[in-house]
Design brief:
The structure is a single chain. The chain is α/β, with parallel strands linked by helices. Helices cover 16% and strands 29% of the residues. A 7-stranded parallel beta sheet has the order 8-9-7-10-11-12-17, with helices on both faces. Strand 33 and strand 34 form a beta hairpin. Helix 4 packs parallel to helix 10. The chain is globular, with a radius of gyration of 27 Å.
């Protein structure tokens, strides 16, 4: 994939365009035509055969795309505008040795944050984010929102760091925001990989972008437990070793509906095939590491050679790798990544660009999961894991990784496809595409939270793979091999009664969110004066969305049906206004109990049309 995401293109009405890498200046075609198709110049390259090809087409321009880029590779990228894309195919077929990368021009352009690598932040490109297709997520789908919270159970986080301030709220354990002599940088690094302040003109970008972070320190296991009980915490990142309390992780994931992501291990003292906990626990998503670039990273006393798509690297000539075993679920970049690291003696600033470790792969997955919840707040932990696995790029069949076959999970993280599938699950008439998958391991794949339709194409489902898919309208098997065995099965069903809408996530209060205006400012005081108890619920009757506003902060909302059964519950709202989506409810009468911050209880009858 070429990196054609920061330009703005205006194309001639009848022209076709494609991008091409031209490493040698002597192979730049100078042939041009005017807008009427009259030839203005002839091509003259190092190959007469190539010149003959160019001269057989109408070429209107050949322009360098990234004129000001500091990256040598991008300085060789050109945009050719011609009359027929057959020229592009002819160049791919006959001149690949001269032009190594050729692809159609995308008219829809991606916009990068102003702190993405050398675009305005740190001095180094963040190829790890290109590798997982982060810019495509940000531009085409979402940059997240602050009421989706990533829990970080780790060492203390430097909450005053320029890329973490206003982003991180410390909620449990000891923190050392002003005493760097007792400060551990690991928690700050992990938090920054998940959701560093992005598009702030400073430092670095992060996949989680606008998501918020709650940090818990000291007792890591207790930190996970504490975070999982907090409102809006949807995913918790762990990057440490502790084999205790597997039952607690089951409760966090299965009963509380919170995703837990763990670092698979760095093979420092253990055999790389050993299980490292909590990552290896059944309900935890275990993340190991993969290379995202071809380069040599060196410094005092070390020299690392890293390679794209490799699950190993050379440390001064010695081949090393991170944990690889059948407990790994997915891999993500962690060889020479950019992350925040507070410097001793400095209040702010400080970055690393050469850090290695699965501790920095797992928060990249956690940040992606936060974006998945932003577009689909209702998917469960097992569905999150399923989506990550069904969209990952399989790499254990590559020659360099064949020795790790079956030990690198479902493959490398594709953040764009993962967030897109989560969105397709939530869209009213969305189509979820499961395609080109090799599913043979005894994993449970679950997609049941109300997709409109699912289409399955060119999949190979064998062995112990277990599939449970539900849809509201249609499930189609278009092609592939579907013969699971050894306890595997395929369970496909249509349920037209499944709700098509997902409730919006509850907002964060004005006091804990910087630069967020409380939306009740837009409701005139006299409206409240005409409502009993200062509460406004509208529209009522409603077809789906209820606006609830009050003169004082709301604390919790409970909705029950006519039998008295509680069917909806939100707590710790801490805001004067909230949107409640009851589109999933059947038509009828419901009863709402609202508790304010001061403990005052208000009852309302609502009608769902």
């Amino acid at each position: 994939m070429l990196f054609f995401f920061i330009l703005n293109i205006t194309l001639a009405q009848d022209s076709k365009s494609f991008f091409i890498e031209i490493p040698g200046v002597n192979n730049i075609p100078i042939i041009t035509h005017d807008k009427n198709g009259n030839r203005k110049a002839y091509s003259k390259t190092t190959s007469s055969k190539l010149d003959k090809l160019f001269n057989s087409y109408k070429i209107f321009s050949c322009k360098k795309v990234f004129k000001s880029s500091k990256r040598e590779a991008l300085q060789n990228i050109y945009l050719i505008e011609c009359d027929d894309l057959k020229l592009m195919n002819d160049l791919i077929t006959g001149f690949k040795e001269i032009y190594p990368k050729i692809e159609p021009a995308e008219v829809e352009i991606l916009t990068l944050p102003d702190d993405f690598g050398v675009t305005g932040g740190f001095i180094r490109e963040q190829e790890e984010l290109n590798y997982i297709r982060a810019p495509e997520v940000w531009d085409n789908i979402t940059t997240g929102r602050d009421n989706i919270i990533i829990g970080v159970s780790d060492t203390s986080v430097r909450i005053l760091h320029e890329d973490l301030e206003t982003k991180v709220t410390h909620v449990f354990g000891n923190n050392f925001p002003d005493n760097l002599s007792t400060y551990n940088v690991h928690g700050s690094a992990v938090a920054s990989m998940a959701a560093a302040n992005t598009n702030n003109g400073l430092g670095m970008s992060a996949i989680g972008y606008n998501s918020s972070i709650y940090s818990a320190t000291n007792n890591f296991v207790t930190g996970v437990d504490t975070l999982s009980l907090m409102a809006r915490v949807k995913v918790i990142n762990t990057a440490w070793v502790n084999s205790s309390n597997p039952e607690m992780y089951n409760e966090v994931v299965e009963d509380r509906g919170v995703v837990v992501v763990g670092s698979a291990g760095n093979n420092n003292t253990q055999n790389p095939s050993d299980y490292i906990y909590p990552a290896a626990f059944k309900n935890v998503i275990s993340v190991s590491a993969i290379g995202h670039n071809n380069e040599t990273i060196s410094g005092p006393g070390y020299s690392y050679e890293v390679f794209i798509d490799h699950h190993e690297y050379k440390d001064n000539g010695t081949i090393k790798s991170f944990q690889h075993n059948d407990s790994v679920d997915i891999v993500a970049p962690a060889y020479g990544v950019v992350l925040a690291r507070p410097k001793t003696g400095f209040k702010n600033n400080g970055y690393y660009s050469n850090k290695f470790g699965t501790s920095f792969a797992s928060p990249m997955v956690s940040g992606t999961i936060a974006l998945m919840f932003d577009v689909n707040y209702c998917i469960g932990p097992k569905e999150v894991e399923t989506i990550l696995k069904l969209t990952a790029v399989k790499i254990d069949t590559l020659p360099q990784n064949i020795q790790y076959y079956g030990k690198l999970g479902a493959g490398k993280l594709d953040a764009y496809e993962a967030v897109k599938m989560a969105k397709d699950m939530a869209d009213t008439f969305g189509t979820v595409e499961v395609k080109n998958r090799i599913l043979y391991r005894a994993w449970f794949y679950k997609l049941v939270t109300a997709p409109y339709e699912i289409k399955m194409t060119n999949n190979d489902v064998t062995g112990g793979a277990k599939l449970k898919f539900k849809a509201r309208n249609n499930i189609e098997i278009l092609s592939g091999n579907y013969y699971p065995s050894n306890g595997g099965y395929i369970d496909l069903s249509i349920d037209t009664t499944l709700a098509s809408d997902c409730p919006l996530p509850p907002p964060i209060s004005n006091s804990s969110s910087k630069n967020k205006k409380n939306r009740t400012d837009n409701i005139e005081d006299e409206i409240f004066e005409s409502i009993n108890n200062g509460l406004l619920v509208f529209p009522n009757p409603t077809k789906g969305i209820l606006n609830i506003a009050n003169k004082e902060d709301l604390n919790e909302i409970i909705i029950s049906d006519i039998t008295g059964e509680n069917i909806y519950f939100i707590e710790d709202i801490n805001a004067k206004e909230i949107l409640v989506n009851i589109s999933r409810f059947n038509s009828g009468i419901y009863f709402m109990k609202i508790r304010t911050k001061t403990g005052y209880i208000i009852d309302r009858k609502i009608i769902k049309e």
